[in-house]
């Protein structure tokens, strides 16, 4: 009997099992390869680490970063690429590099750097998942990390202006989406009829962009025009992540039940009240209108 | 049209050389332009980085226009009616772009890592070569500044905690993917070279022909005989009049 595999990751919303791209990649791969994962969603308690999420824990190992986690799962004989040829394996690596170089900067920008999106959607959502006062610190740190990554990989030394690169990264991302759409064509998955690592990565990067409701949505609009990519995401969601109450992930005696769009905590109601008050307060002070209610609607 | 290709005398690929064999730098940088059969003249300048509009070398100077970096150079040349990838269909173009990103993602980052984050190489080779055109103390200051910049970038993309062995493993994985894609073909797509061939040639040629404190990087590439044959073939075909071949 294999040792239990536990995955710590960010929770879900807007019909997705997780809103965080890297966590979603690992979850999708686990579903495709049949790995029995126990999912621990980051919650309002002080248990567990939030820094390098997603993190896979087994009896003897702690593995972080999606690439390493997927390698580890493959070594445990949970291999979704079993039927791929050598050339298809090489193509997988190449397309993943394409996603990371061309699409990821724009996705990071949409979620973490674009002010309207960050302050009305991303920050309240992530802040609501973690206890106070971490909720005041961690989202800001993640946002700065994202900005840093964009500027250092795309900006020009020594001044690193964001404005110069914004147009370029969105152009690159749209081109990348077009390339993916051309490559997918009318097939169900990228390589044949069974999903593989590449499908997990594409799903992980595209699904949050597709489903999360943002005020500034230029990239999302472009994605919605590529109907085969949207169909790809919807198919995976309906086949592998059934959208029903608590159906997605396991419940064990330590765990919270995961309901899409909401996280119920075992904590006292007082803490929930304080957390919700902070959410409302932060939204009001930023924009004078309360958007936070929208971020916690259950999926339609 | 005659293109003037400018590169820095001690640009990154040259830094990996011991000794003053500068002609290797133009070989790497001009592979694409040679494949397009364009007449070029290569010039090396210490301040090429500052002449470039984006701060990066190499760049080309044509008439009264200046274009830098491989991507924009390819676009520019295409706009003038020369293109290596016209014969590819949409799916193949997507594949070509993906493989070019793989090379940039893995090989280029590994080369930068080896140059600036591996203490042995930095101490013995990189600092000295990078700072050599400048007087003291500017040579030390600029070298340290560049090293700090590169380390920041490595940290941002998650390579900060990698060991040398992990980096070499990534290079191996990348070479394996390229080798599998190339297979027994002459070039990566059909029988004609494309931008991908130029890019791969440039990187592999530099890795194979430069001497470092250890040879592990070039050994990784030499494990793949079809990649070695590919480099030799391109060198012979496009650069045979530049003097003796360096790949043995």
From TrEMBL, chain A:
Which residue windows are transmembrane per the record? none
* Keyword Lipid metabolism (UniProt): no
Q: Keywords in UniProt for this one?
A: Membrane, Mitochondrion, Mitochondrion outer membrane, Protein transport, Transport
Q: Please state every residue range assigned to the domain named Mitochondrial outer membrane transport complex Sam37/metaxin N-terminal.
A: 23-142
Q: Origin, by domain of life?
A: Eukaryota
Write out the GO biological process terms.
mitochondrion organization; protein transport
Task: Specify where it is mainly localized.
Answer: mitochondrion
- Does the UniProt entry include the keyword Transport? yes
Would you tell me the Gene Ontology cellular component terms? SAM complex
Q: Which InterPro entries match?
A: Glutathione-S-Trfase_C_sf, Glutathione_S-Trfase, Metaxin1/3, Metaxin_GST, Mito_Protein_Transport_Metaxin, Sam37/metaxin_N
Localization, UniProt: Mitochondrion outer membrane
Location of the Metaxin glutathione S-transferase domain: 173-236
Instruction: Identify its protein family.
Output: Belongs to the metaxin family.
Name of the protein in its database record: Metaxin
* Gene that this polypeptide is encoded by: MTX3
UniProtKB/TrEMBL annotation, chain B:
Domain (Metaxin glutathione S-transferase) spans: 172-234
UniProt-listed SUPFAM superfamilies: GST C-terminal domain-like
Classification via InterPro entries: Glutathione-S-Trfase_C_sf (IPR036282), Glutathione_S-Trfase (IPR040079), Metaxin_GST (IPR033468), Mito_Protein_Transport_Metaxin (IPR050931), Sam37/metaxin_N (IPR019564)
Source organism superkingdom: Eukaryota
Any Gene Ontology biological process:
protein transport
What Gene3D superfamilies does the database record attribute to this sequence?
Answer: 1.20.1050.10
What keywords appear on the UniProt entry? Acetylation, Membrane, Mitochondrion, Mitochondrion outer membrane, Protein transport, Transport
Query: Which parts of the sequence belong to the Mitochondrial outer membrane transport complex Sam37/metaxin N-terminal domain?
Result: 31-147
Predominantly, its location class is mitochondrion
Q: Per the database entry, which stretches of residues form a coiled coil?
A: none
Pfam families attached to this UniProt entry: GST_C_6, Tom37
Please indicate if the UniProt record lists rRNA-binding as a keyword: no
Question: Listed GO cellular component terms?
Answer: SAM complex
Write out the annotated subcellular location: Mitochondrion outer membrane
- Main role? Involved in transport of proteins into the mitochondrion.
Q: Which PANTHER family does this UniProt record tie to the protein?
A: METAXIN RELATED (PTHR12289), METAXIN-2 (PTHR12289:SF38)
Q: Which family does it belong to?
A: Belongs to the metaxin family.
Query: What's the subunit arrangement here?
Result: Interacts with MTX1/metaxin-1. Associates with the mitochondrial contact site and cristae organizing system (MICOS) complex, composed of at least MICOS10/MIC10, CHCHD3/MIC19, CHCHD6/MIC25, APOOL/MIC27, IMMT/MIC60, APOO/MIC23/MIC26 and QIL1/MIC13. This complex was also known under the names MINOS or MitOS complex. The MICOS complex associates with mitochondrial outer membrane proteins SAMM50, MTX1 and MTX2 (together described as components of the mitochondrial outer membrane sorting assembly machinery (SAM) complex) and DNAJC11, mitochondrial inner membrane protein TMEM11 and with HSPA9.
This protein's name: Metaxin-2
Gene name tied to this protein: MTX2
């Amino acid at each position: 009997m294999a040792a239990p595999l536990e995955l710590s990751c960010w929770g879900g919303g807007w019909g997705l099992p997780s809103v965080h791209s890297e966590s979603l990649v690992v979850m999708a791969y686990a579903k495709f390869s049949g790995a029995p994962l126990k999912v621990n969603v980051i919650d309002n308690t002080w248990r567990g680490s939030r820094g390098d999420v997603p993190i896979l824990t087994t009896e003897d190992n702690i593995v972080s970063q999606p690439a390493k986690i997927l390698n580890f799962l493959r070594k445990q004989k949970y291999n979704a690429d079993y039927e791929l040829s050598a050339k298809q394996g090489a193509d997988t690596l190449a397309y993943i590099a394409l996603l990371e170089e061309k699409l990821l900067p724009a996705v990071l920008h949409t979620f973490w750097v674009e002010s309207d999106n960050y302050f009305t959607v991303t920050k309240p959502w992530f802040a609501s998942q973690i206890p106070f006062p971490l909720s005041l610190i961690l989202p800001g740190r993640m946002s700065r990390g994202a900005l840093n990554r964009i500027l250092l990989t795309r900006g020009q030394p020594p001044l690193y202006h964001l404005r110069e690169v914004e147009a370029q990264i969105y152009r690159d991302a749209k081109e990348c989406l077009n390339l993916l759409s051309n490559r997918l064509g009318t097939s169900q998955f990228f390589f044949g009829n069974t999903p593989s690592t590449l499908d997990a990565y594409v799903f992980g990067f595209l699904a949050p962009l597709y489903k999360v409701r943002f005020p500034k949505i230029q990239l999302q609009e472009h994605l919605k025009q590529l109907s085969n990519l949207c169909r790809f995401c919807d198919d995976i969601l309906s086949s592998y992540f059934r959208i029903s109450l608590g159906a997605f992930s396991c419940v064990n005696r330590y765990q919270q039940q995961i309901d899409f769009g909401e996280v119920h905590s075992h904590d006292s109601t007082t803490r929930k009240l304080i957390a919700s008050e902070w959410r409302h307060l932060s939204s009001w002070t930023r924009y004078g209108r309360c958007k936070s209610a929208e971020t916690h609607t259950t999926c339609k | 049209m005659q293109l003037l290709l400018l590169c820095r005398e001690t640009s990154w690929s040259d830094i990996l050389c011991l000794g003053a064999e500068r002609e290797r730098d133009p070989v790497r940088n001009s592979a694409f332009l040679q494949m397009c059969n364009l007449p070029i003249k290569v010039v090396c300048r210490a301040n090429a980085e500052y002449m470039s509009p984006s701060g990066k070398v190499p760049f080309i100077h044509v008439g009264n226009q200046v274009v830098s970096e491989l991507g924009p150079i390819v676009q520019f040349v295409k706009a003038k009616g020369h293109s290596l990838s016209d014969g590819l269909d949409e799916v193949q173009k997507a594949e070509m772009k993906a493989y070019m990103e793989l090379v940039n993602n893995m090989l280029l980052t590994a080369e930068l890592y080896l140059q600036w984050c591996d203490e042995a190489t930095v101490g013995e080779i990189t600092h000295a070569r990078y700072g050599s055109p400048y007087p003291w103390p500017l040579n030390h200051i600029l070298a340290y500044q560049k090293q700090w910049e590169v380390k920041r970038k490595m940290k941002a993309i998650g390579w900060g905690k990698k060991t040398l062995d992990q980096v070499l493993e990534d290079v191996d994985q990348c070479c394996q993917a390229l080798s599998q894609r190339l297979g027994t073909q002459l070039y990566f797509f059909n029988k004609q070279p494309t931008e991908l061939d130029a890019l791969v040639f440039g990187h592999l040629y530099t890795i194979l022909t430069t001497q470092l404190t250890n040879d592990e990087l070039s050994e990784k590439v030499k494990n793949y005989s079809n990649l070695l044959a590919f480099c030799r073939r391109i060198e012979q075909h496009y650069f045979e009049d530049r003097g003796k071949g360096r790949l043995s």
